[in-house]
Amino acid sequence: MVEGIKKKAGHCWKMFQKQRQLWLLCIPIIIWVVLFAYVPMYGLLIAFVDYIPGMSIFKCNFVGLKYFRDFVLSPVFLQLLRNTLAMSLLGLTFGFAAPILFALCLNELKEGWFKKTVQTTSYLPHFISWVVAGSMIFMLLSNEGIINDILMRLGLTEKAIPFLTEGKYYWVMYTLANIWKGMGWSSIIYLSAMSSMDSELMEAGAVDGMGRLGAVKHVILPTILPTIVVQWIIGIGGILNAGFEQHLVLGNTSTQAYWDVIDTYSYRYGIQLGYYSVGTAVGLMKSIIGVALVWATNWFCRKKLDTAIF
Amino acid sequence: MKKKTMSLIAVALTAAMLAGCGNAGSNGSTGTTGGSDAPAAESKAADAAGDAQEEAQAPVSEGSGNFNEFGWEVPEETLVINILDAAGDYAPTESEKVGEANVIEYFKEKFNVEFNIQHISGDGTEAVNLALASGDYPDIIRYVPFTVMEKFVQMNKAVDLTPYMDTLGTNLKKSMGEHYPLFLDGDSKLWYVPSMMGSIDDFPDYSAHIRYDEWQGIGSPEIKTPDDFYNALNAILEKYPTTPNGESRYAISLYDSTSPVDLCGFWGLKSGYDIDDEGNFTYWAFTDAGKEMTKFLNRFYLDGTLDPDSFANNFEQWKTKFSNERVVGMLGSWWISYNAGHEVWQSLDPNMPEDKRFIQIGFKSEDADAAYLSAKNFLGSRCTIITDKAKDPEALLKFIDWQASELGQALTGWGIPNGTPIGDTGETGKFWDIDEEGNWSVDPEAKEQLITETWDYEAEHYWTGVPWLFVNQSRWDDGEHNIWPNQMWYSENKWKSMMLDNLSDTIFDSSAMSLRVKSDDIKMAEQAVKDAWQMNWSAAVQANSDAEFDAAWKQLQDALNVAGIDKLEEALAENYKTNMEKLGQ
Fold this sequence. Notes:
The complex is a heterodimer of chains A (310) and B (585). Helix content of chain A is 71%, strand content 1%. Chain A is mainly α. A two-stranded antiparallel sheet of chain A has the order 1-2. In chain A, helix 4 packs across helix 8 (170-195), helix 5 (113-123) crosses helix 8 (170-195) and helix 13 (262-272) runs antiparallel to helix 14 (276-305). With 585 residues, chain B is α/β, with parallel strands linked by helices. In chain B, the strands form seven sheets. A six-stranded mixed beta sheet of chain B has the order 1-3-2-4-14-5. A four-stranded mixed beta sheet of chain B has the order 8-11-7-12, sandwiched between helices. In chain B, a hairpin with a 6-residue loop joins strand 15 (420-421) and strand 16 (428-429). Chain B starts with a helix and ends with a helix. The A-B interface holds A 21, 24-25, 27-28, 31-32, 35, 52-55, 75-76, 138, 142-144, 160, 162, 164-165, 252-254, 256-257, 260, 268-269, 271-276 and B 2-3, 6-7, 9-10, 13-14, 16-18, 21, 123, 125-126, 129-130, 132-133, 135, 147-148, 151-152, 154-155, 157, 256, 308-309, 311-312, 317, 520, 523-524, 527-528, 531, 534-539, 542, 562-563.
């Protein structure tokens, strides 16, 4: 046992010596990560004490899991979880598939001005802030908005549809808004993965009579599968992140029962009311669940798809 | 060579990163910061000002014997006042920026006082909480919410002002008047002064609004009850169904800040509560009055005359509709229909008929004793504290006390006297004059413009911007003046006189209702109650049938019960009874 450890340590040391110049270059990054990613994590202790701003964490009353318990047992917990999961899952299905499909479509276009224009235009919404996007969506979807105007002029509805003030429309609107904003930008990574595709495979497939759909199924998708898997695992890890500023911009009191998610709750009670212990407990709980889901998904992908992050 | 280069790069990168972590240590006289950046930015301000303050503040409180025309004893050494302005959402216009710079210069020259003001562009409360957590805050914080002020006290980071109140704080104590005991904590200690207290108890805040010319157009029907108001709005809508541009109109429209708590005043509730003779509180959603108020709005919804985006409009979106004449009536603060109505129209058409405007009116439910529309809380809700960072708190308190004096209030509210350049226009503007002996008078031209409502509110920014560490909105002893230039001489203003006549019996003193000391449970319940009505009230307003309304109402009540409305009612009642005792009532 001891021998084994010694052997491994020796191996590590040899590796380090061999790569010492690279390690030297990494020193600033390592220091950065330690200082800014790990040292602040001691602040997670706030979740376990009755924190008073300005007082040392170690002098505050230790309350154990009180804030975790309070959150889980709070009357709004199930509603928050429902909203969070619903919007996350919509994002992980439609929102996840949209950039892949978009990248596949773009890939089918011949190089030229049209493809470049479509591609560039699709990136633009990503750079529009949610505040501006919110105003645009209000103009489109309000009772007097463009969409209702068109629907009524076409005789498809007699009365304006309250897209913005009825909760039942909120999740769909949120998902579509996210797709509109993120689809072009997220497709870059898939297009980049497609660019590394082996052209000989395509040519061989063409010789064997493989059509466009066949090429997508048998060549392109297998090529970008590792990228899809990585994105999927990362996406699963963020399943409890169902947006924040989007809801503050797109939501209103009429729809709050549908948009109030864990993060907006945590912001109101943790930050705005100054109960940092509540905010930290909720955040920590989300992180733990996120990490667990990443591990589980990673394990699943390795077993079933033979592809994983780690 | 390669190794040396690599080592050099690594060392350089490390050094650069560590340098980046350090404090730049430079600072201007004013600054703005977003919510979460506040402490770091503030730290710079405090550091920069700290050195100057250390040497400057010590002798200030001792006095120089040299008084200026404002009654301020000018210190021999500059008094540096570092202020964190926790009001938040700071987004100044160009004229406001210039105004603040003018004020800073004026105080340096006339008072030998130097302001370092740190504004917050994001959420002010969030920024102060973070400042407290990090320990980066300056000598004075203004506009701190009461609950956050308590945290400073709890952490021994606020200065106890009690020992000074009979010596350095006489103006403050006089201004607080009979309400002084309500500012003290359980141990009779004073930890703060209100950033803004008092009220103009003869002037309303909240009202119903109706288009005056159109109301005349339908024969000026009397409006005494909710039904009268409903009928008048619909009669106007029938007669004037579209705007001059041909757009459809609504009888009434709401926006995201509309609160049922305020609306219930028309149905006889005080700040959203029914208070019985024993001082017990019942929340509006559990009263007939609250239900009637909601049904009143639901009636407009069912008629299709309530703006369907009432719960989606933010204020700016709503204001655009209002300014485009798409709304016949509204319920809200008196100034809103000024700001979004005739003031906009007048700026577009100077020859606009005088009667084309909204007037402010009151009405009350037949079942109510009275309409309680304007709650006057003399205590204010925000605090100014002197923190443990102050090297000479007495000097700072002396300045705040001067601000509480009559001339202090004048300079704070009315701005720089005797004329200030209005940008690059070559013109000057002012509200008042003062001579070297301290004799002052309101500028007759300014007074005339305010009475005739032709006052240029944009130009006013060039001479205002004094940090409000303490202001009292109430009228002065002369019964005429107060800090707001536009809230005097009502009797000489046709429209304000009309407003007063319509609403004089709708104002009430809510100071004793103000729950200031709150346990964690109560704070959480308060937020949960707000969440509960926000999530459920709109469903009742927008119910399509009586059955749907009843279901939504039941759901609202259930949500409020789960949120802990009983705890809140109990705490409010207990606090109210204690305050009434303190006030000897």
